[in-house]
Design brief:
Immunoglobulin-like; 4 domains; seven-stranded mixed β-sheet
Length: 418
């Protein structure tokens, strides 16, 4: 009897003394226009440091979700038929932190897709019969890419597809994927599984140079050239040199310092030489980057800690930013959620780049479409991104100017209220 009592006390102490290692993530997903709860949203919980999924969830009738996670850094990917994915194309997710013993509320809004009654592709990605988690699956047709990430069982759904014939392929570090063709019809589901093979052996390396600014660790990633999403497993952080190994053969857009960290890729380099694409094969590929301080946008904009757009009432907002040292003038650019420029920016279609709008350095604000040159007006319920380039006069340049900075890629996100 005494032995049983001692064992019971010991077990009780062990249970009481076990350290708590998890926190709770919860929230509700709603329609951005109507605030209606969205049932059936597929949520992939991604660990931000490794860019791999750790859980998959589906919202219930109230649009709510709740899950327990180990303490750490995460981000979410949201998918639903009839709605644009979150985060949208061209926007990288910003991570959040789960603290041990605490609950974090993360509500999200989803925008209705412009395409209604679209088709979808679903399937499973496997290697040697086992599902592979965290694969970026891209369906391509007519020069456009549509994507989803496999959950922890290797399952994927790509929603809101126009009727067409698609090539479908998986992308993840260390693996090579087969490529297949699938026909999609309106309001119908097409099933397509994919097989992966271990052993992708390509590599990309390079150095990071900091121009007139202090060095710090920045992210370097290989992204899909159509969806601009980082390929899982092809990401690193560095303040000097880097190497990304296990790269599948293919065409990529290389990105550096995409997160909001006060640094940007030298915009003049991109204007002169184009986006930093890399073609990966058996031999190692080199891609260097030059970075500088970013210009700070002030209002209206999302917070640096989130990619949730700032809701604004006016369809002709006034954009403001902080003055940048050595600026001769500024170039403002407004684009839609798909990355299409609708006002301002720089025209690269000719022999030399041309500024579509020039704002003198004495001004640090501009009203949308103040010169009447916008190709489209801002529409209620839509998400847009505005950014500002910093230009400096340079008599040695063929254009007579060069770009010396630009605002962060993931700032200046706005949504026009209904």
């Amino acid at each position: 009897m005494m032995l049983a009592f001692v064992l019971l006390v010991a077990w009780g102490c062990k249970k009481d003394d076990e350290p708590v290692t998890t926190g709770v993530l919860s929230g509700a997903i709603t329609d951005a226009d109507t605030d209606a709860a969205l049932e059936g949203v597929r949520i992939i919980v991604m660990e931000s440091n490794t860019n791999t999924p750790v859980k998959s969830l589906v919202t219930g009738a109230e649009g709510s979700y709740k899950t327990e996670l180990l303490g750490g850094s995460y981000y979410l990917k949201l998918y639903r038929q009839g709605y644009d994915q979150v985060p949208p194309r061209n926007i990288s997710p910003l991570p959040f932190t789960i603290s041990v013993g605490a609950e974090l509320a993360k509500p999200y809004e989803m925008n209705s897709s412009e395409l209604q009654n679209g088709g979808l592709i679903s399937g499973k990605i496997t290697e040697a019969g086992a599902g592979v988690a965290g694969v970026l699956v891209v369906a391509e047709a007519n020069g456009k890419g549509y994507s989803a990430v496999t959950d922890d069982a290797g399952i994927y759904y790509i929603y809101n597809l126009p009727a067409a014939s698609y090539t479908v392929k998986g992308w993840i570090g260390g693996y090579t994927s087969e490529q297949v063709t699938t026909a999609v019809t309106s309001a119908a589901e097409s099933k397509q599984n994919l097989l992966l093979t271990r052993g992708a052996s390509g590599s990309v390396n390079g150095t990071i140079t900091f121009l007139a600014t202090t060095a710090l660790d920045v992210d370097v990633a290989l992204t899909h050239p159509l969806t601009h999403e980082p390929v899982p497993g092809l990401l690193t952080n560095t303040a000097a040199s880097y190497t990304i190994e296990g790269v599948p053969a293919g065409h990529y857009l290389a990105r550096a310092t995409y997160r909001n960290d006060g640094r940007v890729v030298d915009p003049d380099w991109i204007i002169k030489f184009g986006e930093p694409y890399v073609e990966v094969g058996p031999a190692a590929v080199t891609r260097n980057f030059s970075l500088t301080n970013s210009l700070q946008v002030l209002n209206p904009t999302n917070l640096a800690s989130t990619t949730e757009p700032k809701d604004i009432a006016s369809a002709t907002p006034s954009f403001s930013w902080q003055a940048y040292p050595s600026a001769s003038n500024y170039v403002i650019e407004v684009s839609d959620a798909s990355g299409n420029v609708i006002w301002g920016g720089i025209d690269n279609s000719g022999t030399l780049p041309v500024k579509r709008i020039t704002i003198p350095s004495s001004r640090t604000s501009a009203v949308f479409n103040e010169d009447g040159s916008a190709t489209r007006l801002l529409q209620p319920g839509k998400v847009y991104r505005w950014k500002v380039y910093v230009s400096k006069n340079d008599t040695q340049a063929a254009t007579g100017w060069k770009l010396i900075s630009v605002s962060e890629d993931q700032m200046g996100l706005i949504r026009i209220a209904e």
